[in-house]
Sequence to fold (615 residues):
Amino acid sequence: MNMLVSATALLLACAGFVVYDLATYRQALLRNLSIQSQVTGSNSVSALLFDDPDSARRTLSALEFAPNILAACVYTSGGKQFAAYRRDGSIDIPARPRIQESEEEQHSSAHGKITLVHTIVFHGKLIGFTYIQSDIQPLIARLENYVAISGLMLALCLSVALFLSRLARRSIAEPIQKLAQVAGRISQDKEYSIRASRDQEEGELAELVDAFNDMLSQIEARDRSLQASHEELELRVSQRTAELTAANKELESFSYSVSHDLRAPLRSIDGFSLALLEDYADKLDDEGKSHLTRIRAATARMAVLIDDLLNLARVARAELNRQPVNLSAMASSVVDELRKTGPDRRVDFVVQDCLETAGDGRLLRVVLENLLGNAWKYTSKRPSARIEFAKRQLNGEAAYFVTDDGAGFDPAYAGRLFGAFQRLHGVNEFPGTGVGLATVQRIIHRHGGRIWAEGAVGKGATFYFTL
Amino acid sequence: METSVILLVEDNPDDEALTLRALNKNNIKNALVIARDGTEALDYLFGRGKYEGRDTRTMPQVVLLDLKLPKLDGFDVLRAMRADDRTKLLPVVILTSSNEDQDRINGYGLGANSYIRKPVEFGAFIEAVKQLGLYWLILNQTAPVSAK
Fold:
């Protein structure tokens, strides 16, 4: 490809030179002819004036020494042939000189010949014309020479160029190409241990190859350390997962033993306290009976506490099973159960219809049982109460709420509402362990929602939650 | 008609005493056999070990089975019972402190007929025993013993 371009360039250059040279040569030739015709003309003046064609003929024949001149002729002022010269007999000379009226000289070229016609002027008067016919053999010869020389030079240059390029390719292009191949292979196979080989001991290319290999070493090192840290990360993740699974298992077995082992002694305490109360009623005074009653009450509380704690633990590790849940129906069912525990109470329950959401049915039931149960509990000291469960738009999101008009709470302590075992009322005012709201909060958080409360002492409370 | 037997499988002596008391309070006068671990329960049922020579054609009316027992636990007893033709159809009431889902699933899965959580409060316990007695001893009909 490069060779073709170089050759074309060289060719065009040569052609340009040749054309220019030939043009100037032709000019020179014409000028020469012009001079010759003028010389011949002035030498023929006397012949013309004294009407001596032989003399003119003799003058013309001197042109035989110019090798390119084929014929020459002198015409009278009227345009008649006066004297002629021919190199060989077959050459054609025009009968009349072809020249414009006012022109001094006119030349033309045709059929490989140049013809020149020039006026002969003596003392300002036109007395005749000279006519010279020349071939352009020298021009052609020159052209042929040039073509030959150019061809030769072109061939020479091209072969030198070829040789030089081959040399260059071997020492520059090939090593670079090899380098590119190595790079290509490395990025394709992701094999970073390959290195390029050095052909020369010194020089810029050797430097390039060394730099290239250095870079490859760095890449290889980086790649290896990346692998290593990746592996370490994987190891750590699997360790953590193992730790978490172990912790979960421990929690499960803990819950299990709490289920069994903590409740059995409680049952004994309560059972035998009752047995004492019943069987030894006559031997116990009121204080004794009161002691036993307190014991039974305490064990009952502890049982509830254990259940609440178990619930809390269960919520923490339960799988969240999101299904469509009808909150209205669930709330109504919880309300029915609450009513059964206090059929004499006058409570107005308002449950909004068609409240549906997606969440874990069991856990959400725990939420409603707790919130509605709390509302039920904290309105128990009033003759009548109103408890509502509905949904409302707050700041662009849907919030469910349970509101009651019961004992309420001091908003200053709102932060402690959801802490485990935190209570804002004494056990004697309202029973409770303080775990219920902590459980509810945990459930709501596992659903990705928020829970908060508003209230005032004696004016009731409202618990909001989002899911 | 001979009085039917209740087999109580319970390792805790307090619970045993309280169950007895509850049965008495409810005037349930059936004979009560107490096994203190899983092996003893199976020995009784199949007439071996301590109960070698027992007439195994007479089976208890109901088995009250605790889950947490030494040696063989409640589930092992249940499995063994359900694997043997003689005891395959015997009513078993699991009576335990645990309310864990997995225990309930396993219990029913292994063929228990009922699952009762023992309440802590004794009054409720007495009531529970009363309901148990009413149902399993009076209302419920056992499968006939197949003639061998």
Notes: Residues 204-279 of chain A form the longest helix (76 residues).
